[in-house]
Every structure is written in C-alpha cells, then in structure tokens.
C-alpha cells in the first residue's frame, strides 16, 4: 500500500481548495484563517480579532467596493445563495511574513474591515 500524495501548501490553488474543504466540513464557521502562524501571533493589527493573513473567510458577502485592498474576493456559495466570502490578500504568490508588502496588504485589509464593522470581535 502506498502513502497518499502529499499536498503542496505553497500553492495558492491548493490552499483555496483546503479552505473550501474546511467550509464543507464546518458550513456554519464564523471565520477561517489560512496563513503563516507567525503572522497571526506577531503581525496582525488587532490582538483580539481575526487576522487577514493569506486568506480569511467571513460568513457574509463582501464586495470589491467594500474591500479594494484584497487581491481576490471569492464568493462562498451554499445552493444558490452566497453564504460568505473568502478574502485573499496575496493572489498569485504564497503569503510570507518575510515580505513587508504582504504584511502591509493584510494589515490594510484588517483595518478596512474593522472600520466598516465587518471584522469580528
């Protein structure tokens, strides 16, 4: 018996699939974060709120007008209704805390969401 194939987490498509898989398992999730632990422990803006990191799911529709800083806003659907949004801070690359621009983008997403009272407390 061979071992199952390993997933390449350094691939934005695989990470999106992973988050969508989590949402299939927990469809009533109030949030899902994906990104480096170091971002969430050291770099996020609000200590008692979720960090944007690489990807953040929130259970409400969010538009590009509300959040222009996001690289991508992916609607999360249940049947024919949007149940939430997957916010992607860095689209074509893997998010890294070694990249100051990545931290700046994620921080600006958090601030914008908090200013609009969208970021959970």
What does this structure look like?
- The protein has one domain.
- With 121 residues, it is of the alpha+beta class.
- The longest helix has 16 residues.
- A 4-stranded antiparallel β-sheet has the order 1-2-4-3, covered by helices on one side.
- Strand 3 and strand 4 form a beta hairpin.
- The protein has 3 helices and 4 strands.
Describe the secondary-structure layout.
Blueprint (H helix, E strand, L loop, with lengths): L11 H14 L6 E3 L2 H7 L11 E4 L13 E7 L2 E8 L11 H16 L6
**Total domains, how many?**
1
Q: What is the residue-mean pLDDT, rounded to a whole number?
A: 92
Sheet-strand content, in percent, reads 15-25%
Distance between termini?
47 Å
Overall shape: globular
Compact summary:
The chain is an alpha+beta fold and 121 residues long.
Descriptive labels:
121 residues; alpha+beta; 4-stranded antiparallel beta sheet; 3 helices; 31% helix
């Amino acid at each position: 018996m061979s071992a199952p194939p390993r997933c390449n987490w350094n691939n934005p498509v695989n990470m999106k699939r992973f988050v969508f898989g989590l949402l299939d398992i927990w469809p009533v999730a109030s949030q899902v974060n994906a990104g480096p632990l170091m971002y969430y422990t050291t770099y996020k803006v609000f200590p008692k709120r979720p960090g944007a990191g690489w990807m953040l799911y929130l259970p409400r529709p969010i538009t590009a007008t509300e959040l222009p800083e996001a690289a991508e806003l992916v609607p999360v659907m249940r049947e024919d209704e949007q149940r939430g949004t997957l916010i992607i801070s860095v689209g074509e690359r893997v998010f890294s805390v070694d990249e100051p621009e990545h931290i700046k983008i994620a921080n600006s997403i958090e601030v914008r969401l908090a200013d609009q009272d969208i970021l959970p407390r």
